[in-house]
What we know:
- By secondary structure, the protein is of the alpha/beta class.
- The chain folds into 3 domains: 2-147, NAD(P)-binding Rossmann-like Domain (Rossmann fold, 3-Layer(aba) Sandwich); 148-311, no CATH class; 317-388, RNA polymerase sigma factor, region 2, helix turn helix motif (Rna Polymerase Sigma Factor, Chain: A, Orthogonal Bundle).
- It has helices spanning 12-23, 39-49, 61-64, 80-88, 103-112, 122-135, 150-160, 184-188, 192-195, 205-213, 215-227, 266-274, 288-291, 306-316, 320-336, 344-356, 364-387, and strands spanning 2-7, 28-35, 53-56, 74-77, 93-96, 116-119, 145-147, 167-174, 235-239, 245-251, 256-260, 297-298.
- The strands form 2 sheets. The chain has a 7-stranded parallel β-sheet, with helices on both faces. The chain has a 5-stranded mixed β-sheet with strand order 11-10-8-9-12, with helices on one face.
- Strand 6, helix 6 (122-135) and strand 7 form a beta-alpha-beta unit.
- Helix 1 crosses helix 12 (266-274) and helix 5 packs parallel to helix 6 (122-135).
- It starts with a strand and ends with a helix.
Amino acid sequence: MRSINILGSTGSIGTQALQIAALHPQRFQINALTAHRQADALFAQVRAFRPKMAGLTGMTAEEAQIPEDLRFCDWRFGPDALLCAARDVPCDDVLVSVVGMVGLPAVMAARQAGRRVLLANKEALVAGGQIVMAACQDGPDGPTLIPVDSEHSAIYQCLRAAAGNPYDKILLTASGGAFRDYTLEQLKGATLEKALTHPNWNMGAKITVDSASMFNKALEIIEARWLFDARPEQIQVVIHPQSIVHSMVQFRDGAVLAQLGSPDMRVPIAYAMAYPERIETDAPRVDFAALGKCTFFDVDPVRFPAIGMAYDALRAGGAACCMLNAANEEANAAFRAGRLGFMQIGDVVTETLARIGGLPAHTIEEVYAADAAARREAQDVMKKMTAE
């Protein structure tokens, strides 16, 4: 049995991880759960799994009003609840499935406490990749970080099957999001309602908008660089509308290994939770005869400039990737709030990075400083954009 602390337990990844834990009660024990403000959902999870600790990072004790029957649990509130769950509550694994920069200190706290990290937070690697990977070297007991993202899990699985053979290229697949077939003119008038209708995956609002703009894939390029020690030119993105091939790895002899399956996050979550074993999930099985075909094509850099921005940021080095992420977060939120047009998301990121220039990212403090600077600048860029 492995004990797991889940950060972001009421989100898409967290709830599916708990579904897997419920399916295999003899394998998994839940010791801590945290949510942001979804108090009622967290209360239900605490009743079902009876963890030692639970936390609401976006609420006070007075706001939450913990029910009497749940006071057996050690309740924590505010941002420190996340660090408590990551560092102070004993466990084998910490599933980091929160969204945003709060994932970075949580990952570092988990590693400082000797926990294995199951990573479903993009920002930790995008903003602090060098720092995170230095803390997550494989140890005598195996890996200390296992990616949960479907694409990176696929690459991870392919490389584990490669018996140490070095790869030539990583092929990251992308569904193309809600606007895959939109023209440039259509994209200029794209609405939030349409952006949130992902064709294949069920995800949170921020990530679904990122998928529509392909900033999600831009962040995954940066993640892949750090997870797999890849050079930017070794990472290629291909649109794959069916989302059956989750990613591929090409080797020096021309052979390509791919990981395939239904577009269901329970598969990579279960792989990370039970590693190195494979366990049963309720995910649907692919009927290849019914599927008929899998198609692939290149990303259009004009309609989806985020991909090029990721490569530029990697080549720029320093805190460029951190600032790209921060500016995108601010622009994404503004689009979801109705203050920004869809195609302006990329404009905000480009202008923000151009204004700030190069900043270092050797320490956590420098990463935080670059993140804060990019957010301030992005807000100023948007203020001037909307005033014009």
